[in-house]
Structures are given as structure tokens and as C-alpha cells.
Recover the amino acids of this structure.
């Protein structure tokens, strides 16, 4: 793992880079974090993806908030007041518009690395990052060959920047893994996403894992090791086939 800073239009964005110890060039992967902050549990996921043979870039999407300390995910999950305060103080520093503006810089970085196979990349995202992963495929269709979203939320809302609205621009293969009983991605919203992708003739899979929202990172109280392993298997199948 290497720590770097990326120059964006809005400042310096801390990021981590992961890749195998030898070999290359490797396909590039842009990893969009969840809403709980830049932390070790995400670095472990990035490293696991890299060890399968990928060059992974994980940016801190909350860099506009300045230096911060992630709150214990167990507290975020259990205390509504802490969760609301975190959302207002930290999570409010990003949006689809800002994230997609940043993504131009992230893709430029990957394009400049001799260790990265060009020109197509894959994207993956978790929770909040799931929407950014799908959006990136729509905003940058000539760069993103595969887009994955795990326990995502709010992929199809009435907001003008809802991720499902970019479906017509997507050229990538899409994989979405929903959580069971997830208020942020209920069955009706899943159907709305399916319909949008199908209408746009996007090759896609949307399935529900028997796990709760947030099951991938090991530091959440709903972490499910078996389903986290399954998510990697699905991600590798998607990326191996497209990248």
C-alpha cells in the first residue's frame, strides 16, 4: 500500500494505491469508499482486490472536510444522533457532482501510471460509493468497462442527480449486490434500477445477498465474512471478464 495525494480542482485528495508486489502492468480499478470514512477496513478490501491482479486507487472522498478521524462504525450504526452529526459534518462534503468532478482527476492519475493497463478501468463502490461507481460509468463511458456496487443506497430516487438516470450513457457491464431489508435500497428501488438498465440495454446483474447493509468492511457490526468473500468472487468474475 502506498499513500499519495491527488491534485483535484478543489484541492489535494489523499489516496491509497494497492497493487501486486511484482509483474504488471495490471488493469486499473477505481475504488469508491463507503460513507464511514477513510480507514483500515477499506484498505484491507483494496489490498484483497490488488492481490488478485489489479492496480487499485482508493481516494478519500471526504478530503474537502479537511483532516478528520473516522467514527467507530459500531457507534454510527447504533446511535442516530452520532450518525446525523457525522452526515452533516463530514459526509456532506461530497455529492455526485463533486465526486464525478474528482473522478476526472482519478482517471487521469490511472492513465498516467505505466503499471496500469490502458485505457479501460473497472469501478467498485460500497454504500455511498456504490452510487458513485454507477455514476462514473455513465459520466465516463469510454473509460469504465465494468462497474460494481455493493450494499449501495439511493440508486434510483426522484433527485435530478439520481445514479439510475445516467443508465442511457453506460457502456460498461454492471453488477449490483443489494442487502436484505435495506431501507436505502428497497425492492421498488431495485426494480427501478433494473428497468433503467434494461431500457438502456446495459448488460447487468442485480442480486440480493443474505446480509445487512454494510456487510463488506470487517469493522461494521453487520460484517458477514462469508458474504464478503462472495462479494470478492463476484467482483473478480466481473473484472476478469471485462478488464
Amino acid at each position: 500500500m502506498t499513500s499519495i495525494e491527488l491534485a483535484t480542482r478543489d484541492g489535494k485528495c489523499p489516496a491509497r494505491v494497492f497493487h501486486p508486489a511484482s509483474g504488471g502492468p495490471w488493469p486499473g480499478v477505481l475504488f469508491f469508499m463507503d460513507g464511514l470514512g477513510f480507514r483500515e477496513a477499506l484498505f484491507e478490501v483494496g489490498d484483497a482486490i490488488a492481490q488478485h491482479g489489479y492496480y487499485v486507487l482508493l481516494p478519500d472522498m471526504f478530503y474537502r472536510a479537511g483532516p478528520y478521524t473516522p467514527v467507530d462504525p459500531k457507534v454510527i450504526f447504533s446511535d442516530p444522533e452520532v450518525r446525523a452529526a457525522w452526515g452533516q459534518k463530514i459526509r456532506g462534503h461530497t455529492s455526485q457532482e463533486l465526486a464525478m468532478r474528482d473522478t476526472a482527476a482519478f482517471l487521469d492519475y490511472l492513465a498516467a501510471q505505466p503499471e496500469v493497463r490502458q485505457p479501460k478501468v473497472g469501478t467498485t463502490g460500497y454504500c455511498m460509493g456504490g452510487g458513485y461507481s454507477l455514476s462514473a460509468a455513465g459520466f465516463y463511458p469510454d473509460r469504465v468497462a465494468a462497474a460494481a456496487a455493493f450494499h449501495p443506497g439511493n440508486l434510483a430516487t426522484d433527485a435530478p442527480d439520481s445514479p439510475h438516470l445516467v443508465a442511457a450513457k453506460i457502456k460498461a457491464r454492471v453488477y449490483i449486490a443489494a442487502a436484505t431489508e435495506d431501507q436505502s435500497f428497497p425492492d421498488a428501488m431495485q426494480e427501478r434500477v433494473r428497468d433503467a438498465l434494461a431500457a438502456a440495454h446495459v448488460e447487468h446483474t442485480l442480486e440480493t445477498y443474505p446480509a445487512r447493509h454494510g456487510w463488506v468492511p470487517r469493522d461494521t457490526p453487520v460484517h458477514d465474512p462469508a458474504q464478503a468473500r462472495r462479494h470478492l468472487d463476484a467482483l473478480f468474475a466481473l473484472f476478469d471478464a471485462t478488464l
